[in-house]
Automatic annotation (TrEMBL):
GO molecular function: cysteine-type peptidase activity
Species assigned in the record: Chryseosolibacter histidini
Domain of life: Bacteria
Biased composition (Pro residues): 37-49
UniProt cross-references to CDD domains, sorted A to Z: Peptidase_C1
Annotated ranges, domain Peptidase C1A papain C-terminal: 104-326
Protein name: Peptidase C1A papain C-terminal domain-containing protein
InterPro entries for the chain: Papain-like_cys_pep_sf, Pept_his_AS, Peptidase_C1A_C
Length: 349
């Protein structure tokens, strides 16, 4: 978990958030973790890690006000429409063929349109790394242009919206809001220097907001969506070329993924080590992942773009089992859309 360096005003609230996050994660898997009933459950310690990995995702429950594929343009606030939101997610989904119940391929891989994976270091900025990664992906795929966006700027702007200081981590919903309200400046104007994580960016950096105000963001796991329907939604949008970012609970077995990027489904006896946000960049129905603690094997996984540098997994990419979605250990699913991107015709099934 990201280390919290907070003032007294925020400390109590943040401690409560983190405590609730851990309780929710434990309850979510209490009845689903695979076990070996013949022996008492050992406490599995993390494997030695060569360096500290930053995390920072804070879990947040769905809200009835979250935009989803079912939100009509009439329901979009006048403020959002005045900032250039032209069509509802539903209208864009129709244009892309999302709603025609297509036959999905057994695998999808969008990694070719992402820039090289970056490293968040020990900072709890995974949500900003995920948000910037998706934005850069769309600019490359839709227009063939490379945008090196400032992760540190987005992390600070997100915490400004929350009135938080310190390396607190953040919510994905607020990260999306910061992206559409403040935008994000190029990396060269606000470089990723960890010691400056709480420094207020220059006013000039905020002038880039107008380039991103017409972006819409929507939630896949809105209220009432079943885990099975959620997985289908994620795969359908990926097949249309639309990635998503999400958060998941990390268990001690995650260090088994250092070499090949395959994150195993946790077993009894493991400990929770934090919450982390990444980007779903594809899927494969045939990928198998084995938890070396007891041999538990899953089939079918989502391709993830991590923010732990190219030395982790396969050049920074890895796999997380579908079970994480179906057992609600991977939640808080968000995607970005912009009418100008969709109109290029690069995104459709």
């Amino acid at each position: 978990m990201s280390k919290i360096k907070s003032n007294n005003k925020n400390m109590k609230t943040l401690d409560q958030v983190l405590e609730l996050q851990e309780i929710m994660a434990r309850l979510a898997v209490r009845d689903h973790l695979p076990t070996e009933p013949s022996t008492p459950f050992p406490r599995f310690a993390p494997e030695p890690s060569p360096e500290q990995k930053g995390m920072g995702w804070l879990r947040e429950l769905p809200d009835c006000r979250d935009f989803s594929i079912h939100t009509n343009i009439e329901e979009v606030s006048a403020n959002r429409r005045s900032r250039g939101v032209k069509r509802s997610i539903r209208d864009m989904a129709n244009q892309m063929g999302i709603l025609k119940d297509p036959q999905l391929p057994s695998s999808v891989n969008l990694a070719a349109w992402f820039p090289p994976v970056e490293d968040q270091g020990a900072l709890g900025s995974c949500t900003a790394n995920a948000g910037v990664g998706i934005l850069e992906y769309f600019e490359r795929k839709a227009f063939g242009t490379h945008l090196d966006a400032s992760r540190l700027f987005l992390y600070k702007a997100t915490r400004n919206l929350l009135n938080w200081t310190g390396d607190t981590g953040a919510y994905l919903r607020t990260t999306m809001e910061a992206l559409t309200v403040f935008g994000v400046c190029p990396e060269r104007y606000w470089p990723y220097r960890i010691n400056n994580f709480d420094t207020e960016p220059l006013a000039f950096c905020y002038s880039f907001a107008q380039n991103y105000q017409s972006i819409s963001y929507f939630r896949h796991d809105a209220q009432g969506v079943t885990p099975e329907a959620l997985l289908q939604s994620i795969k359908t949008w990926l097949a249309a070329g639309v990635p998503a970012m999400f958060g998941f609970t990390c268990y001690s077995s995650i260090d088994q993924s250092n070499a090949d990027g395959k994150i195993p489904y946790p077993v009894q006896g493991e400990t929770i080590v934090g919450g982390h946000a990444v980007v779903a960049a594809g899927y494969d129905d045939t990928v198998t992942i084995v938890n070396r603690n007891n041999g538990y094997t899953t089939t079918g996984a989502l391709l993830i773009r991590n923010s732990w540098g190219t030395g982790w997994g396969n050049k920074g990419y890895g796999w997380i089992p579908y079970e994480y979605v179906l057992r609600q250990l991977a939640v808080d699913w968000w995607s970005l859309l912009k009418a100008e991107w969709i109109d290029t015709g690069e995104f459709e099934i």
